[in-house]
Amino acid sequence: MNLWNRLVCYSRRRSPWIFHMNAGSCNGCDIELIASLTPRYDAEQLGVRLEGSPRHADILCITGPVTHNCAQAIETVYGQVCGPKAVVAIGSCPATTNVFIDSRTLDGPLNKHIPVDVFVPGCPPRPDAIIQGIARAAEILANRGNNPPTPISATEPTTTDEVQP
Amino acid sequence: MNMMTALARLLIFPGLLFAVPAAWFFLWVERKAVALMQGRIGPPFMQPFFDFIKLLNKTTPPRNGLGGLLMKAWPVLAVSSAAGAVGLLPVLPSSGGFEGDLILLLALMEVPSMCIIAAGFSSSSLFGEIGSAREAVLSVSYNIVFLMAIVSIAASQHTFRLEALAQLPYSPLRLLGIAALLVCLPAKLHLNPFSLPNAEQEIYSGPMTEYAGPELAMWELSHGLEWVAATGLVATLVAPHVTLWWLAALIFVAICFAIVLLLSVIASATARLAIDTTVRFYWRVTLIFVVLAVSSALLMRLRS
């Protein structure tokens, strides 16, 4: 790897911009994600910036068990994020649909729709765990380059990272 | 000013080679000051540089046709005009300049704002259009004060040369002009009481909503260069006249730094105003600066 590529990888790791999307969450994980940006946890030390537009983001943070209403929106927003990109599923809901399992209003879990890189389990997860998840996703992002991730089918077991709560 | 000095000023000092790191530094100071005001530690020193490199290496969505070409052109135009504006600043004493460079500087400083308006509309995003409309309304409001303040200082001295302006003695008119410029800077740099065009989270990212990758990197850079140009213009008027070149450059940079700190602290201490309040503020409250500046400039011309 030459010097320029190393600089690019390093920059990707040091500047993960996130876009937050609520896929039917109860708002518990959302306020924890915001808490990770507040003075007590201050994720900006790692270069994390909450962006208003998915076009600017590197990491898509999704909370909530995917409802029928937002299943299409998730795929749209995932398509709007420009590569290289990573997805962090925050909370137990996007991983397993949690207590809402078998609900007729749900179309989850999240990896049925888009490839997920990091799961941060918890109901809700602590801000420390969310920051760790974002940092792990930034590392994945740095090594990913411009190769798109292979889509993961929902039936196969996933080989993605999991952050201990 | 011959061709070589003009090129050296545009490309080396205070042009691109100096201005780009200065732009990153000011962007960092802005973010760090806001973080410190909020009791956080804030981003590391190299953060704007990392952001820039990362954005340069991201992909952009396919853009076809004339609209796509325009979307690629606006950020480049904004960066080049902002860099040109920085290149005209008289950082070093007796660095040249020409009659009328103040007018060119003001025109170049206006180009990034027009690019932002055009960029929002050509991105055909609803939020981009809202942001562009806000930027247009805002620039009509603050520019009257901004331009009239500088033009009355220049007109009172019968010169439109930046270097001559920098060597003026302090007068009430000059102080009035500096105050008027400082009132306009938050709106010009989209900072917090008047951060309406790029109102984060409120209208997504305003005119920048559809921009990604290298285009967004150029927008960030042009924002940083606007910081350098705008604070540099105020520093030109504030800085005392010193003949030692290194001392003059040092004082210039220190004043720029102080203005960046001041504006960031104001930005982090205030909340965003609504568009009608902002427009009313600029048309009603700050117009007093214009009336005072123009009338005192007229008086000074009549007396001289």
3D structure, described in words:
The complex is a heterodimer of chains A (165) and B (304). Chain A has helices at 3-14, 28-35, 68-80, 92-96, 127-144; strands spanning 17-22, 49-50, 59-63, 86-90, 118-120, 161-162. Chain A has 165 residues and is α/β, with parallel strands linked by helices. Chain A has a single domain, classed as Rossmann fold. With 304 residues, chain B is an all-alpha fold. Chain B has one domain (3-303). The radius of gyration of chain B is 19 Å and the shape is globular.
Number of domains of chain B: 1
Proportion of residues in β-strands of chain A: 5-15%
Strand content of chain B: under 5%
Based on CA atoms alone, the radius of gyration of chain A comes out at: 15 Å
Keywords:
heterodimer, A: 165 residues, alpha/beta, Rossmann fold, six-stranded parallel sheet, 6 strands, 34% helix, globular, B: 304 residues, mainly alpha, 72% helix, 0% strand
